[in-house]
Amino acid sequence: MKTIHRDIVSAVIFSKDNKILMGKKDSSKGGVYNDCWHIPGGGIDNGEDMITALGREVLEEVGIDISSYKAELLDDLGRGESVKTVNGEDVNCEMTFNVFRVDISDKNANEIKVMLNDDLVEYTWIPSSELSEFKLTPPSITLFTRLGML
Question: For position 29, what pLDDT does the model report?
Fold first, then answer.
């Protein structure tokens, strides 16, 4: 099986009231982790830098324009591997995760308009102190543990 590499960007989006935006994917559309919460993000397209890709992915997945907020790199140590179908062919996809923190410091979670697009079918704002009470994806568990949030 052919192996490809993808650089992934994702955002830990904090609201003014210290809640984190998490989403669930539709597993029937190729979601890797069934019934788990994760942070929004996706692959970097050819010619994009990380910040441009981050803004595009967040806008595509949750409908939030983060361009007026600072995106600070939180973690680039995450790695993952998954079989994906590309142009009708199954390939092994090795991924590097680049996670950014975005503080929407002027709005509480209930004031931020979220519009689900792309492959997300559900979202919630989780108080950062309650992350351990939710079923998170394995990469999210690793990330939040490494950041001292779990």
Answer: 63
According to DSSP, residue 148 is labeled: T
Domain boundaries, position 114 = 3-146
CA angle (95 as vertex; 115, 43 as ends), nearest 5? 35
Contact of 79 with 94, CB cutoff 8 Å: yes
Instruction: Classify the phi-psi angles of 11: left when phi > 0, otherwise alpha if psi is within -120 to 50, otherwise beta.
Output: beta
pLDDT tens, position by position, 74-126: 999 998 888 878 788 888 889 999 999 999 999 999 999 999 987 788 999 99
pLDDT in tens, 27-72: 666 556 778 999 999 999 999 999 999 999 999 999 999 999 999 9
| Number of separate domains in the chain | 1
Contact 112, 23 (CB under 8 A): no
d(CA 15, CA 91): 37
Model pTM score:
0.90
Q: Cβ neighbours of residue 59 under 8 Å, at least 6 residues apart?
A: 65, 66
* CATH number for position 24: 3.90.79.10
Do 97 and 10 touch, CB atoms closer than 8 A? yes
Strands 120-127 and 89-104: unpaired
